[in-house]
Specification:
Elements: H1 2-25, H2 28-33, H3 35-44, H4 46-61, H5 69-77, H6 79-103, H7 106-127, H8 129-137, H9 142-150, H10 156-179, H11 184-190, H12 192-195, H13 198-220
Helix pairs in contact: 3-4, 4-6, 5-6, 5-10, 6-9, 6-10, 7-9, 8-10, 8-13, 10-13
Length: about 230
């Protein structure tokens, strides 16, 4: 138990340190000041920039409340590279949080939120990894989902696969929106929803509804009788 407390305290300290770094050196205002330099670095050193961007995105994804990153990455790296970096980094960070929840915070989460965890477990027993996939597509709170799933009985492999596939569509839409921005200042002036077209927003909503609607339809038609596991 003592070792778990130490591990959790170290994790919190690292997250606080990362938050300080992001607010001081990697805020949107700072990126706007250096946006020409950023574009130059990506053009001259694409692989090194991509790896560094991946590590930064993983670190940022461990901190709740750092939204809008996928749009920025779409602008910096372009749509295709941006989607790849964002999706892989989000999945990697989610897996870290999942493991922390399962192997360090499991008893605490189960003690405080056991009722909710039990409900999620029943949903997972009924729908398998598809349930998590639907949550990811629907953009259910990212950090909350990671920690909640760590306290359930879902297999780690199913968690990773459902997260990777479920986050891919949303990452594409927002990275694409970012790739269409003339400058990062446009994002600062309009905000996230000011740079995403109504068509993209409608597409995201339909994409979130689609897997749930398909699942319900298949169940109504009697084509699904047993839980489905993503593995």
């Amino acid at each position: 138990m003592k070792r778990k407390v130490i591990v959790f305290a170290m994790f919190v300290a690292v997250c606080c340190f990362l938050l300080w770094i992001f607010e001081r050196w990697l805020s949107l205002e700072q990126l706007i000041v250096h946006e020409s330099w950023l574009r130059q670095q990506v053009n001259e050193h694409p692989w090194r920039s991509g790896l560094l961007g991946f590590l930064i995105y993983v670190a940022a994804s461990l901190i709740p409340g750092t939204g809008g990153k996928s749009i920025v990455y779409g602008w910096i790296f372009g749509c295709v590279a941006g989607v790849g970096i964002v999706t892989l980094a989000l999945t990697f960070a989610a897996t870290i949080s999942f493991c922390l929840s399962r192997y360090v915070l499991g008893d605490v989460i189960d003690g405080r939120f056991g009722h909710y965890v039990a409900r999620i477990d029943r949903a997972l027993e009924r729908d398998g990894g598809f349930y998590l996939f639907a949550l990811r597509v629907a953009h259910f709170p990212y950090t909350l989902t990671n920690y909640a799933m760590g306290a359930t009985t879902i297999r780690a492999r199913s968690f990773v696969l459902a997260t990777l596939l479920g986050l891919l569509p949303g990452s594409f839409f927002f990275a694409y929106a970012g790739s269409q921005l003339p400058t990062l200042r446009t994002l600062a002036e309009r905000g996230v929803f000011g740079v995403v077209s109504p068509q993209l927003l409608i597409a995201v909503v339909l994409l979130a509804i689609a897997p749930i609607a398909i699942r319900v339809l298949l169940r109504r038609l009697g084509l699904i009788h047993t839980p489905t596991q993503l593995s």
